[in-house]
What does this fold into?
Amino acid sequence: MPRHALRDGLRVEAGKRPHLGRTDPRDTLGLSGKDEAADVVARCSERLEALQSLLASEDRRSLLLVLQGMDASGKDGVARALCGAMNPMILRMAAFGVPTKPELRHDFLWRIARELPERGRVGLFNRSHYEDVLVVRVDGLVPEETWRPRYGQIARFEERLAETGTTVVKVMLHISRDEQLERLRERAQDPLKRWKFSADDLRKRDRWDAYMAAYEDAIEATGTEDAPWYVVPADRKWARNALVLEILTHVLEGMDLPEPPPPEGLPPGFLPGT
Ligand code: ADP
It folds into this structure.
């Protein structure tokens, strides 16, 4: 199967509701195993090396990649893979946890806007404004009349970003409840992984179905042509990383970044043939 067909299968059509219950988190989209995934990673990394340079040279537009997913779905692992493939000057990650008191004194998009990538850069959001219609909704942290309008507010916010030169792409890492249990257990057991463990994550597991419904609502309400969602099966780490790298590469390719002209003001003879 050609590569582009794999990635295309993960993209949720604008306005369409994904059926997470019917989407297999163990799917590898045709990747036969770790070796093939490693080839994809190598190929994408090479392309990303070039594409990020073109983005930085153009210095006009930026890209925002939003990563969402349940605890232990691999947001950190994907972030590590992307950071490893790109220049840390160009790809910058921001993580969003429980809002601080000052953040809570502003509207929910305030802290998000402060971390948006500048021109010529890629921003990677490890959690995002979507938490404000996920955990906030499921845990009932604000009343429905507050979270319900946020879908529209988010869609308009992202629409403006797209119009003003920030390409937005959103990825949900789709892990199964069983695989999550395995990973949380491992975190609790392994002293080197324990820093990531929180007993609160177990509590959130009890509301799995409510979270899946909240994800489906968010994806349906905010998926647009300009700011699409991808649902990436995340039970197999190697497939997950390869697929997200491929999505990022594809989105950057789609920006049609021009090759920069030679710099102006060079003394004659500095470049051959001048
Ligand atoms: P992670 O779990 O991503 O590795 P943390 O341990 O810092 O990182 O946890 C972040 C926590 O913050 C998550 O439980 C997440 O649901 C929560 N969170 C993020 N944004 C919000 C928000 N707007 N309101 C309430 N909780 C939030």
